[in-house]
Amino acid sequence: MGEKLFGIGQVAALFHLSVSTLRYYEKNGLLLPEFVNPDSGYRYYSARQFEVLNTIRYLRALDMPLPEIADFLRNREVFRMEEKLTRQKAAVRDKIEALSRIERKIDNRLQTLREAQSRPMDEIFRVTLPACRMIFMRDALHPRGFLDMEAPIRELDENLPEAAVFLGKVGVCISPERLAMGRFEEYDGIFLRLDPEDRVAGAVLSLPKTPAIRICFHGSHGEAANRYRKLMDYLAQNGLEAAGFSREVTLIDEGFTPDPAKFVTEIAIPYREKQ
């Protein structure tokens, strides 16, 4: 009596696979049918092939690429399996690190969004700005809203090997000299705040932590001038002066909501005792 054969549908059901998956394995040389009916083209498999199919399924569960599996099946040796598993372990570690970076980026954005929605509006606070990295581009700007920022943002984006531009990270700044002259609608540059996980190809500006005054308000860059006046009045009344570029960042705008009443912009100005 000949060896019992199992139709492709039976094998698919036994191993919780689709018929198309078995055909794909055949096409890529991983598992060839034991017999193909020359009249119907129907595929049959023997019980001897089940161990091969178990190996394929297990290695796929380890996320091993099919070409690597096919290579092993063509040259089955213990040392080759050890090599494949060691290499796959390293690949998994790389994926874990990549996913951890993504998780940290998500946490950063969630924190920014939650803070933007919970901060008091139009009140001045003394804060300590944390040390940070940024890409800075000095250029005269007159933005009224987020659409006016798109062209310079694209220039910043050229130095980024991966997506890093997002709300709460892009801002504009005014120099201390221009602040002292009260010219609050003319910006001196645009910057992109970098998360620790962001990878950058070009030059990066590293800033130490610094004391600053900060105000948040509902609106965008077009409504910022009056807030700058309030901040500069506060500095003058408290014997302080601007000690660096302002940092003006829209935390929530039309990218998140069509309702302008929900837009949130933050302005921070580093300060020191007036000299």
Describe this entry's structure for a reader.
The chain has two domains: 72 residues, Multidrug-efflux Transporter Regulator, Chain: A, Domain 2, CATH 1.10.1660; 163 residues, Multidrug-efflux Transporter 1 Regulator Bmrr, Chain A, CATH 3.20.80.10. It is built from eight helices and twelve strands. The longest helix is centred in the middle third of the chain and has 41 residues. The chain is α+β, with helices and mostly antiparallel strands.
Strand % is: 15-25%
Do you know the CATH topology of the largest domain? Answer: Multidrug-efflux Transporter 1 Regulator Bmrr, Chain A
Radius of gyration: 30 Å
The CATH architecture category of the largest domain equals Alpha-Beta Barrel
Instruction: Describe the largest sheet.
Output: 9 strands, antiparallel
Arithmetic mean of pLDDT? 87
Low-confidence stretches: none
Shape: elongated
- CATH level-1 class of the largest domain: Alpha Beta
Distance between the termini: 103 Å
In total, how many domains does the architecture comprise?
A: 2
User: Structural class from helices and strands?
Assistant: alpha+beta
At the fourth level of CATH, the homologous superfamily of the largest domain is Regulatory factor, effector binding domain
Counting DSSP H or I runs of 4 or more residues, the number of helices is 8
Number of E-state strands: 12
Q: What is the N-to-C succession of helices and strands?
A: EHHEEHHHEEHEHEEEHEEE
- Helical fraction equals 25-40%
